[in-house]
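Allow me, if you will, to draw on your knowledge of protein folds for a short while. I have a record of one protein: its chain in single-letter code and its fold written as discrete structure tokens. I remain grateful for any guidance, and I place the record below:
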Amino acid sequence: MTDSAGSPVPATETPQRGDVNSGSAPESTLLRALADAGVPADASPRRRAEYSYDASNYRVEPLAVVFPRTVEDVVAAVEACRATGTAIIARGGGTSMAGNAVGPGLVLDFSRHMDQVRAIDEDAGTVDAQPGVVLATLSREVERGTGGRRTFAPDPSSKNRATVGGAIGNDACGNHSVRYGRTSDHVAEIDLVTSDGARLTATEAGLRATDPADSFSAARADALIASLAALAQEHLSAFRLELGRIPRQVSGYHLENLLPEKFNIARAVVGSEGTWAVVVGARMKLVPKPASALLVCLGYQDVVDAARDVPTILEFSPAAVEGTDEAIVATMRHRRGPDSVLGLPEGQAWLFVDLDGDDPESVRAQADRLLDRLGQNGRLVQGRKAADPAERASLWRVREDGAGLSSRLASGGESWPGWEDAAVAPERLADYLADLRELLAEHELTGVMYGHFGAGCMHIRITYDLRTEEGRRVFREFTRQAAELVVRHGGSLSGEHGDGRARSELLSIMYSPEVMAAFAECRELWDSAGILNPGSMTDPDPMDGHLALAGVPERQWRTSFELSPASAGRDPWVHAVQGCIGVGRCRADAGGVMCPSFRATRDEKDSTRGRARVLQEVVRGARTVEEGWRSEEAREVLDLCLSCKACATDCPAGVDMATYKSEFFDHYYRRRRRPRSHYSLGWLPRWLKLTGRVSGLVNAVLATPLAKAAAAAGGLTTKRALPRFAGAGEWRREITDAGARGSAVLFVDTFTRGFRPEVAGAAARVLGDAGETVACSADACCGLTWISTGQLGTAKRLLAKTAAALDDGTDRPIVVVEPSCAAALRKDLPELVHTEQARRVASRVRSFAAHVADRVSGGWVPSPARPAPQRAVLQTHCHEHSVFGASAQRRALEAAGVGEVVDATGCCGVAGNFGFEAEHYDVSMRVAENALAPALRDTGRDDAVLTDGFSCARQVEQLAPSRPGLHLAQLLDPGPTGTK
């Protein structure tokens, strides 16, 4: 099946109970009703594909997506859905692991526009926030607004993309829940829109009309209060005996909050997973921010030993007791390098214990007492205090990226959610885990374990095979038995993720028929129309229905890139694009580099996740492979991908969208006319051979009005000045001392030869100063421009020639001046040229910064001819960050005596050809505003700007023409012989 443009659209699924319950209206009827109400909606196949998934195992295609800007938009959308019988799914960051954020009707995405912190009242201890505010942003704004005295406490690992509305929906907790509890412990008031259009505010004392003059809502509030109180009165005994028994009992509705001794409707609403009403605002409680904190890391033989020490640890009143196992640590080191995990003690399972207090000395003394006590218990392998901020950040990153890291393990296996959120009382955790491991073994499954040990809540991802009928049978059988097991241990099916589509079917194992009936009655009181998030909580869809991996055709998608490792018997392309599991780190607005286009546009389609979801729909829904490679939806979502490669490292699941874009464009544009920039910039190395011979003439022309005409003819922006072209022999004159058999090979790439020949000379002199004898290679090309524009036939031929030229029978390091070229030779070469020769050469490649940092680590101290600047802005090239790591340049700068390094962490926005293309210029400048432009504004004209990447240097020239970007080699340059 295709849409009117001939692009693949997913096949219709067999209707299930969720489809019947949703009462979904035909798409045209809904869209007409929304248009009449003045609410823009997007029902394009591409948009529906992006919102068919969250971070769970499920895929449910919606009818349309709305991005409300105001509460009035929400009321109008709800009215249109009620009138047409259409389901409503409220969504924040889309990070639900239980399937809470997907559904068959209209998705309301609050994260794009309703994302403001409206007011901070420190005296009252509250913050007024819209539902789309990201939790990390909320905490940051509160701390800024209170001078660091207060913060918002709930901090789930997804806090830098999960939203307030989502946290309320499933009662999110976080790493510090041992101290601060759940979201329900931090809610003062919640503004709601019910399915019948009432605007209500749930409070700790009851329920009121949000607008006192709204008589309909006032009457609705009074009626609900009476009905909810009567419901609790009817089930007093059951609610008191079955609900609220353990700290993390999140499964089901939290109706214990309706008991007469509590009657807190705001708390009762939390955890209702969007099935009672739509959250449109909230006043959340603030907590004091601790003055001092210290992380203590504890190593154990296994997670059961670690869990047995939790009761002892809790005696020390920690703020957090988190844990992880060795599989996640091994995967992080495999994917991001050995330096990605710092300060981990010996062991095969680890606990991270956060201690806090009024002063550092008392906290350190408390840590010493804890380590002594655990040593007496006899289970601790090694423990240490992580006082260094870099170590602390590194260790927390391991825990926070657990979900993504565990999905594609270093061992090559896959794991999935489904039973990833069960909780027991902390004192029963060890026994529960021991029994669970036995159950896993019975089903020949492996569980990757991490989570909130101190709260008794474990996030366990399991090696189900959800692609086959037999694997899905095991999934269902195991999950039901695991539910029975956790109930025997007095636990809860969910500890913070909610029940959603993953566990709602199993609630009857945990609760009596009386409580289950009360759940259904309560939902009916709030949503008599039955249109809010159908398929979850009551009358649920089967837990093995709508599985995203079911029904994907088994076909061969031939690729140029070697996409490995792929699971046995699975197509490598399908396996690669299915690597995205929806955790959404690409939607974070800070930390790492990924994803620059999303940070610029705030549109799901421009996130790594959005692109991956569309590609997943292509491999599912295309009638033929050839049709899939021609998908207009896929081309559209890939258009603003900057090919920065950051996701290959920053994405916990290792999604490499730059590679997928290159592969897709190679197929999409076969026998088609390409954009003009694919010829002007994609073929740049060819043009540079010509311009090098007549550089004087070319530069003279570029100094005239003809420059803009030339740029426009090549599909380039006229808002960005073209660089000066170097003469063919300039780089040779820069390198005077290079021999044929040096201890290192300096690879002078196309960009350096063609635009920055002076950098080649500086690089050679720095290597000489570091004790290297330098051989030079400049007769080969890394093929980068052809790779980034998806012209892989040419790229492979060039790379094969380059491998032959560089494979000299030695293991000498190949030091590449331009970081993007270094990354292409290190990563793309062996993936495109499948020979031992290519692999040998790739293993020798180093970026200039990485090689110099290694020399510094070996004791070399740079001796630049010019005094080191007191401060430098560091713009690390994205490819350097992804392939060689982000710390090399900083280490070299510190060794050279630079006093302060200001990291402009993020993509510069030019990214090779992207920022030069006419249609991408505006986005490239918005990307620069993420980090580089503010860093330049916040520093002085005398502060150096380090830009090893040529594209980064061009962006700096665009932003601050008076502050030329320098290559690390220029800053460390000892000068020509005899100049010191």
Q: What stands out?
A: Confidence is low (pLDDT under 50) at residues 1-24. Residues 252 and 507 are 7 Å apart (CA to CA). The longest helix spans residues 215-234.
